[in-house]
Amino acid sequence: MNRKGNSVFGFPGLALLVLFTVVTSCSSDEKQTVANFKELVMQDEFDTDGAPNSAIWGYDLGTGADGWGNNELQFYTNRTENVKVENGYLLITAKKESYSGSSYTSARLTTKGLFEQAYGRFEARIRLPYGQGIWPAFWLLGANIDEVGWPKCGEIDIMEYRGQEPTKVLGTVHGPGYFGATSISKSYSLVNDRFDTDFHIFGIEWGPEYINYYVDDVLYNQITPASVNGEWVFDHPFYIIINLAVGGNFVGAPNSGTVFPQTMLVDYVRVYKNN
Amino acid sequence: METNGKSEHMYTLILENKKYTKMKNRKFIYLKNSFILGLLFLATISCEREISDEAAFATLPSTGEIFVDGFTGGLDYFPFEGSYFGAFTVDKETKYNGSAAMRFDVPNVGDPSGAYAGAIFRTVTGHDLSGYDALTFWAKGTQAGTINEIGFGQDFGENEFLVTTDLQLTTNWRKYVIPIPDAYKLTAERGLFWYAEGPENGKGYTFWIDDLKFEKLGNIAQPRPTIFNGDNVVLNTFTGVMVPITGLGQTFNLGSGIDKKVVPAPGYFKFKSSDTSVATVSENGFISILSEGTAVITASIGGVAATGSITVKVSGNFQLAPIPTRAPSDVTSIYSDSYTNVPVDFFNGYWEPYQTTQSAEFVIGGNRMLNYTNFNFVGNQFANPTVDASQKSNMHVNMYIPNSVPANMDFLITVVDFGADKAQGGGDDTREQIFFDKAKWVPNTWITLEFPITLANKNNIGQIIYENINFSSLDNFYLDNIYFYRQ
C-alpha cells in the first residue's frame, strides 16, 4: 500500500499520513478498563411509566436557600410536567413559566434516606439538554450533611454540564478546604460529538482513597487524598441527586436563545458494590 | 511540468458566453479581458507550490476541501456583475496555515473598478457533500466587519441548495462554521463557496480566508427550521395566485454552544399542504392556489418540523384589471402587462419614519399587479430617467379594494414633476393633487381612475404618491395599469 501510494503520487506527505494512521490504530487497540465493580446493588431502569419509584427517589422541592446556594432560578416541583417516567426513561423537564415567584420550574430527585452507600460504582446513562443557563447534574452528597454540614459532609459531582458548552462535562469533588472555586475538578470533552444528541454513561468508581471518573469507556480522572487540599471526607455513605437547574452561578441565566422546555433523559441509574 | 498541466485544470478562469440566472441583481459577467491575466496568475501559483500533487488525491467527487494551500481541483471562479473582478487573489504572505490563503479586497465606495467584492467558486462536476455537516474556514480582516452574504450552493444554475448567512469578522484569525441545513440533499453540488461583501462605512478593506473546506464536525445539533420567520401567517387570497414561501431559516447549535442561523433555499425543505385540492407547493417554494377553500401549508427539513405556517383562505376567482385598449403610441406606461414600461426606481420607497405600507407583486395566471397592505401612503418613483409627459394629457390607474371600502375612505394621488434638475427637491419640484369622490369605489371590483395632468411643467415627472388623508383607514388594495396617455 505504501509502495503503491508513493509510485502513484510521489508525494512526501503520504509517508506522514501513513505513519499517522499506524500510530492512531495502535492506540485504539488498547482497551481501557473503566469499571471493575460488577456486583449490582441498586438499579432503576425506569421501565414503569408514571412517577419515579418512591422506594428509591424522593424530591427536593422549592427554591432552597438562595437558589440552593447557587442563585439558581428554578422552582423544583414533583409535578408530572417536571418529572415522570415514560417509555423507559426518566424525564426531568425544565420549563419557563411563572410559578410561586420563580420564572422556571424543574425537578430534583434524591435518594436521601432511601439509598445511601459508601464506595462502589455509581453510573447513569443520560442524554443531556442544551442551551445557555441550563445546568443538569448527577451527583452525590454525604449522608451526614445534616449533622456535619456542607462541605464537611463531602460532595462528589459525577457529572455537571453547562448547556452553553454542549461538548463538555465536569467531574468534581468538594470537601472542607476545597469547595466552590477551590474544588477539585476536571473536564472531559467529546471530539466531533456532543452530549445533547445521544446518551452517554457518566460514572465513578469509588474506593477507599480514590475516586475514578469516566464517561462511556474513557477513564479521564482519578482523585485521591493527595489531590485535595484538606481532609479526605469520602469514606462514609453518600446519597444520589439528579437534577436539572436553570441559571445560577455556575452557568449564568438563560438568554433569549435558550429554548424551553429542556428535558434531561435518564435511561438508567445503577450502583455497584465496592468489590 | 506535470504540475503546470494539473494546475491549469485545477484552477481556471473559465470563459463562458452564457448568461446566467440573476441572483439578487447579480449576474455572471463574461470575462473578456481576463484570460491572459488568468493564465499568468496560474503559472505563478503552480511554480511556487508543490501542493498540486495533493490535488490529485482530491479527485474523489466527495472531497470536502476547497482551498487549503491551493484549490483542490476543477474549481472555477466567477465574480458577480458590478463587483471588483480583481477582488480575489491568492496570498502567500498572510495566511492562517500552510503556504497560502485566499485574499479578498473589498473596494472603497465609488471605486470605478467595482462597487463590491463577490464571486462564486464552482466545480466543473458535482461533489458529493452528503457526508459533511458544515462548511468551515479560518478568516480575519484588516478591520472588524460583517461579511454580508457568504455560503455555498450558488452555482448560477437553479441554486437549488443555496445557503446564505453573514459573519462577523475580527482582526484575528478565527474559525467559522456554516452548517449544512440537510446534508443528504448535497449529493451532486457544484457551488462550493460564494460570498458578497461591500465596503464598511464607505471604506474598502481586506479579509482573508484559509483552510476552506467541508467537514464532518459531528457537534452541530438541535436543528430548528422556520418558514415565515416562525410566524403563523393567514392569507386571504384567490384562485390562480402564486404565493412565495418566505422567511426561511435553519438554526443549529454549534459545538461552541453558539446558535448559528443560515438561510436555506426552498430546495432543502419538504412542504406539505393540508388540502392539495386548494393549494399545492412546488419544490422551489411557491404555493399555487387552485380552488376555493382553506389549506394550511407547513414544512420540514430532514424530518424536523419547521416553526411557522401559512393558512391560505381562498375565496374563489380574482377578477383581473380591465385590459387597456389604448394604442401603445399614445401611452407612457409605469406599470402594466399590456405596455412596455419605463424604468422604475421603486414601487415602494419604504419612506421613513412614517410609512407603514408593505407591498408585494401579486401574480395571477401571469398577470401582475401591485398589492399594498398595511397602507398609509406609498410612492412609485421613476426618476432615471424622468418621464416626459408633455405630450400626454391624462393619467390612468386601475384600483381594486378587496372585502369592503372603508366608510371614512379619503384617497389622494399626487403627481410630482421633478423640474429641470430631474431630481427630487432642489426647489423646482411641482405637484398636482387629485382628490376622489368616495362613491367611485366599489368593493371587490376593479375601478378605473382617469384624470387630466394639469401641471404647467410635466416633462420631468418622477413620482406618483398614493395616500390616505383625513384619517382614512384604507388598508389593502391593488393597483394595475399605471400609465400616462394622450387623449
List segments of chain B where confidence is low: pLDDT < 50 over at least 5 consecutive residues.
1-60
Give the number of helices of chain A. Answer: 4
Calculate the terminal CA-CA distance of chain A, rounded to whole Å. Answer: 48 Å
**Radius of gyration of chain B from CA coordinates:** 27 Å
Quote the beta fraction of chain B: 35-45%
Main sheet of chain B, how many strands, which sense, barrel? 9 strands, mixed
Itemize the secondary structure elements and their pairings.
The complex is a heterodimer of chains A (about 280) and B (about 475).
Chain A: H1 2-9, H2 12-29, E1 40-44, E2 58-59, H3 67-71, E3 74-76, E4 83-86, E5 89-99, E6 102-106, E7 108-110, E8 116-117, E9 120-127, E10 134-142, H4 145-148, E11 155-161, E12 168-174, E13 184-189, E14 200-207, E15 210-215, E16 218-223, E17 238-246, E18 262-272
Parallel strand pairs in A: 3-6
Antiparallel strand pairs in A: 1-18, 2-7, 4-5, 5-6, 5-18, 7-17, 8-17, 9-14, 9-18, 10-11, 10-17, 11-12, 12-13, 14-15, 15-16
Helix pairs in contact in A: 1-2
Chain B: H1 2-10, E1 11-12, H2 35-48, H3 52-57, E2 65-67, E3 75-79, E4 88-91, E5 101-106, E6 117-127, E7 134-141, E8 145-152, E9 163-169, E10 174-179, E11 189-197, E12 205-215, E13 221-226, E14 232-239, E15 242-244, E16 249-253, E17 259-264, E18 270-273, E19 279-281, E20 286-289, E21 293-301, E22 304-305, E23 309-317, E24 331-335, E25 358-364, E26 367-373, E27 377-381, E28 394-400, E29 411-417, E30 430-435, E31 446-452, E32 461-468, E33 477-485
Parallel strand pairs in B: 1-3, 14-23
Antiparallel strand pairs in B: 2-12, 3-6, 4-5, 5-12, 6-11, 7-10, 7-12, 8-9, 8-11, 9-17, 13-16, 15-20, 16-17, 18-21, 19-20, 21-22, 21-23, 24-33, 25-26, 26-33, 27-32, 28-31, 28-33, 29-30, 29-32
Helix pairs in contact in B: 1-2
